[in-house]
Design a protein that fits this description.
Largest sheet: none
Number of strands: 0
Helix content: over 70%
CATH topology of the largest domain: AhpD-like
Structural class: mainly alpha
Organism: Photobacterium galatheae
Strand content: under 5%
Number of domains: 2
Pfam family, one: CMD
Distance between the termini: 16 Å
Mean pLDDT: 92
InterPro entries: 4CMD/NDH-1_regulator, AhpD-like, CMD-like
Order of helices and strands: HHHHHH
Number of helices: 6
Low-confidence stretches: none
Shape: globular
Protein name: Carboxymuconolactone decarboxylase
GO molecular function: peroxiredoxin activity
CATH architecture of the largest domain: Up-down Bundle
Amino acid sequence: MGKTLDKDSLGKIAPKLAELTTNTLFGDLWQREALTFRERSLITVSALVAMNKYEQLRWHINFARENGLTEEDIVEVFTHLAFYVGWPSAVTALQTLNDGDE
């Protein structure tokens, strides 16, 4: 797997996408009050596992921790997802979680 683009790298490559990410995604969507940051992280992590987007999952696992998810919460999400999105996806997500701890 390659390196995930950080905000600065994304801004150099695709300034408009970086602007939309900052202003629309995190500045608007994530700030809506209908869901907590924790709930949004649960949804986002689940969606990334379901779509096999493990590069983005690495960053969102750390963001989920900042938003109040514990290691046990994240493992439970991946275990639950095994039956909905497939065993290999859940196991790869667990490996991604484990890789981030090293």
